[in-house]
Amino acid sequence: MSENLNMSGDTNNTRKEFAQLLEESFKKVELNEGQVVKGTILEITPKAILVDVGFKSEGYLDRTEFGEEAQNLEVGQQIEVYIARIDDESGTVQISKDKAKSLKAWDDISKVCEENSIIEGKVIKKVKGGLTVDIGVQAFLPSSQVDLRPPKNLDPYVGKKFQFKIIKFNKKRGNIVLSRRALLENERDSIKQKVLENIEEGQVVKGVVKNITEYGAFVDLGGIDGLLHVTDMSWGRVEHPGEICKVGDSIDVKVLKYDPDRERVSLGLKQISEDPWEKVEDQFNVGQKVKGKVVSLTNYGAFIELSPGIEGLVHVSEMSWTKKITHPSQTLKLDDEVESIVLDIDPDSRRISLGLKQLEPNPWDILEEKYTPGIKVKCKVKNITDFGIFVGVPDSPVDGLIHVSDLSWTKKMAVPQDLYAKDQEVEAVVLNVDKFHEKFSLGVKQLTQDPWQEASEQYAVGTKVKGTVVKITDFGVFIEFPDGVEALVRSGELVSGKDKDENPKDLLKEGDTLEGKVINLDLTERKIAVSIKALHEEDFDKYLSEQPGSKATLGDIFKKEKKKGKKEK
After folding, report:
1. Are residues 455 and 437 in the same domain?
2. Among 447, 479, 514, residue at a domain's last position
């Protein structure tokens, strides 16, 4: 009987507890759709999370909404959830953790915008025109706002966390645009101001190569860029700035010039090392034989690098004693290792003159010693020009010149091509060896005596002479005497009277023999004038008396003499 009483007591207690729980359930907070509330985790299963939100029934969350956080959840833990839907008839409620998180994020983002503060986010993927960033909700980061300069490749930014400034916010449309560049610019401006306050000419500073151009490199000194010109990169020759540095390199540079008004900084790299030209005279001496590499070829010579930062010039005139070098490429090419002789050192002008030909004996010294003026030498014709012939002399690389004026004493208009042929052997007399101007002069006419030396006696004015016609022109006839001397018989001195207008070419031909009288002698100009008319003037009266009538002329005498000469032949 007592057992029955106890059972009756337990039943009464259970009913009381149920009634109490039912009463408490009606006292729970009233819920509304679209509301974010705190809920308590009641149960955790492999697929879902059971959450008490103070409604008739519990809400269920898909475990995937928590991601990796699901492993750290505990029963009794409070979380925020979003009331998506309430069904009073069935007493069920639909909740969402992601929606709650999103709404909270929007509230936080709104607050950040109001306060104009900074927000942190993680880049999750590349999209067209930029990147998608998770800041609680997804936001857009344009390529132009990723860095100080738009990067060519966005891949390195994916998966990394950065701080951003919100530059566009529209909660209704769910549109957020971020900028990282704005923060970097503010940071750069702050650093730049500190750099500008402390920068001084002559100061050595650290920088990072930001950009490379044809004329130099721009170096970021921390908020301000300085120009490192190609001429200030090295004491030696630099063909392109890329030979010295590349983008991203960290380098020490010297501030050469600073313009605070224009905020321009000129930098130098070579200035932080010793100038090699300051001790060039200790390293090299005039007459010294040196080795170096050909680093540049120009129209006027070749530059040879003798040591780092020190170059010498071999002028084309110093490349060969005998060859006419018009361009250094005829003798040298880039990167050739060559020997040369130091000819001159000018540290102030930073110039060293070098010579290649000085490595060999000067053939002009040998020539001057061996071939003194007056020596006869047999030569071979190497080249023929309008002004003379070039000949090679035995055992010498030097060519000699026999000028046209030294081919003949008497033929003033001698044509070398008519007198000589290539490879023909000729004998000549050495006239002069000009070592300074590198000229070797020879002559052929000097092999014989100058016939003009006796012309004053042999061809005195009034002397009767006889010569052979060698050239006929409109103005007269050239005749040659047996010794090679030529004289001119002008047209007016050939005939007179009615024949004076006749063309000499109609009266004579080359090879005819003429007899006349010397009427002028100019030894300085080497000119002789002969007259046929003057020779026959003394016989003119006698001739007229022999002729019927009075129309005879000197031309008649000339023709008669011409016929007589033909018969004698």
Report:
1. no
2. 447
- Give SS3 for 290: strand
Same domain, 88 and 38: yes
Per-residue pLDDT at 497: 46
Whether residue 540 sits in one domain with residue 455: yes
The arrangement of strands across the sheet holding 48-52 comes to: 59-62, 48-52, 36-44, 78-87, 92-96
Same domain for 544 and 476: yes
Asked, for residue 159, whether it belongs to a domain, the answer is no
Nearest residue to 91 via CA among 17, 36, 21, 31: 31
Amino acid at 47: K
Note the pLDDT tens digit of each residue in 429-484.
Answer: 999 999 888 899 999 988 988 888 878 888 888 889 999 998 898 888 999 888 88
180 lies in some domain: no
Cβ–Cβ < 8 Å for 82, 103: yes
Residues 317 and 264 in one domain: no
Same domain for 418 and 489: no
Output the CA–CA distances (angstroms, integers) from residue 567 to 118, 468, 469, 480, 482, in the order listed: 131, 17, 18, 22, 22
Structure tokens at 132: 């998608």
pLDDT at 97: 78
Nearest-5° angle of CA 490, CA 467, CA 516?
55
Burial of residue 1 (CB within 10 Å: 0-12, 13-18, 19+) is: exposed
Residue type, 444: V
Among 206, 117, 194, 188, CA closest to 149: 188
When mean pLDDT is compared over 16-30, 326-340, 483-497, the highest value belongs to 326-340
Q: Domain boundary at 99, 128, 153, which? A: 99
In angstroms, the CA 452 to CA 526 distance is 7
Distances (CA, A) of 10 to 5, 23, 561: 9, 20, 185
Please, what is the Cα angle at 434 between 430 and 440, to 5 degrees?
A: 40
Quote the CA–CA distance of 456 and 458 in Å, as a whole number.
6
268 DSSP β-pair partners? 254
Residue (of 440, 434, 371, 443) closest to 404 by Cα position: 443
CB 455 within 8 A of CB 465: no
What's phi and psi for 327, nearest 5 deg? -150, 140
Q: Indicate left, alpha or beta for 132 from its phi (over 0: left) and psi (-120 to 50: alpha).
A: beta
Q: Is 19 a residue whose pLDDT tops 50?
A: no
As a whole number of angstroms, the distance between CA 63 and CA 104 comes to 20
* Domain boundaries, position 530: 451-568
Name residues whose C-beta falls within 8 Å of residue 513's C-beta, 6 or more positions apart in sequence.
Answer: 466, 467, 468, 469, 565
Residue 51 maps to a domain: yes
Pairing of strands 225-229, 264-268: parallel
Residue 378 lies in a domain: yes
CA distances from 426 to 249, 407, 431, 444 (A): 72, 11, 15, 8
Buried b (16+ CB within 10 A) or exposed e, 535-558: bbeeebeeeeeeeeeeebbbbbbb
Direct distance between the N- and C-terminal alpha carbons of the chain, in angstroms, rounded to an integer: 195
Q: How many domains does one find in the chain?
A: 5
